[in-house]
Amino acid sequence: MRFTFRCLDAQADALLLHGWVTRPYASFWGMLSASVADVAEEYAGIQSSGHHHALLGLDGGVPAFLVEEYLPSLSPLAATYAVRPGDVGMHLLVAPPSSGPEHGYTTAVMDAVLARLFSRPEVERVVVEPDVRNTRIHALNERLGFQPAGMVALPDKEALLSFCTRSGYLAARSLLPPARPRPATPISIPEGAL
C-alpha cells in the first residue's frame, strides 16, 4: 500500500504542519498567520477532545497529508443538519509537493482516506463542510462520490455540506482511471564509486 497513517503528535509535528497550514494554498485551513506554538496548541486540543482526531498520512513513510476525523454530533455541524448514526466528519490537507506535482495524486490521497474510513463497519457516511469558495475541493469531493446537500453557516465560514455513502464512494471509485505507477526515483551514484 502506498499510503499509511499514524497518529499526529501535536508537539513533535507542529513545525511540519506549520509549514503546510501557513502557505497561501492552505488559506481555507484558516491558519495562515499561525505560529508554530499556535499550531501545536490547536492540534493538542483536537487530540485531547475525545471526538476529534488528527492523523498524518505517509507516502512511503514521508508525511504527505493531514486528515482530521470528527463526530459531527459533537461539532458545530450538529446545528445544521440531522446527524445520523454512522456519520463521521473529515477534513483533508495535502502537503505541498516536494518534487513537483504528480497527476492524480490528490485523488489517490482522498481515495486512501475514504477507503480507510469506510473500512470501519460503523461508518455509514462521510460528512465534509469545506468553505463554499473552495471550488477545487468541491470538485475532488464530487469525483469521489460526495453529494452536495447545500450551504450551511458555521462559526468560521459559509460551507458546502456534502455527504458520501459507502455505495456512492464505491461507485465513484469504479469510474476513476487506473492509478499510474510511480516513477522510479533516480539513484545518483557518485563518480568513482563503481
Can you give me a brief rundown of this structure?
The protein has 194 residues and is of the alpha+beta class.
Model description:
- The chain is built from five helices and seven strands, in the order βααβββαβαββα.
- The chain has 194 residues and is an alpha+beta fold.
- A seven-stranded mixed beta sheet has the order 1-2-3-4-5-7-6, sandwiched between helices.
- Strand 2 and strand 3 form a beta hairpin.
Helix content: 25-40%
Order of helices and strands: EHHEEEHEHEEH
Strand residue percentage: 25-35%
Overall average residue pLDDT: 91
Spatial strand order of the main sheet:
1-2-3-4-5-7-6
Query: What is the end-to-end distance?
Result: 33 Å
Tally the helices. Answer: 5
Structural class comes to alpha+beta
Q: How is the main sheet built?
A: 7 strands, mixed
Rg is 18 Å
pLDDT < 50 runs, ≥5 residues: 183-194
Total E-strand runs: 7
Query: How is the quaternary structure best described?
Result: single chain
Question: Which SSEs are present, and which pair or pack?
Answer:
Elements: E1 3-7, H1 14-21, H2 36-48, E2 52-59, E3 62-70, E4 87-94, H3 105-118, E5 125-128, H4 135-143, E6 147-154, E7 157-165, H5 166-174
Parallel strand pairs: 4-5
Antiparallel strand pairs: 1-2, 2-3, 3-4, 5-7, 6-7
Helix pairs in contact: 1-2
Fill in the keyword field for this structure.
194 residues; alpha+beta; seven-stranded mixed beta sheet; globular
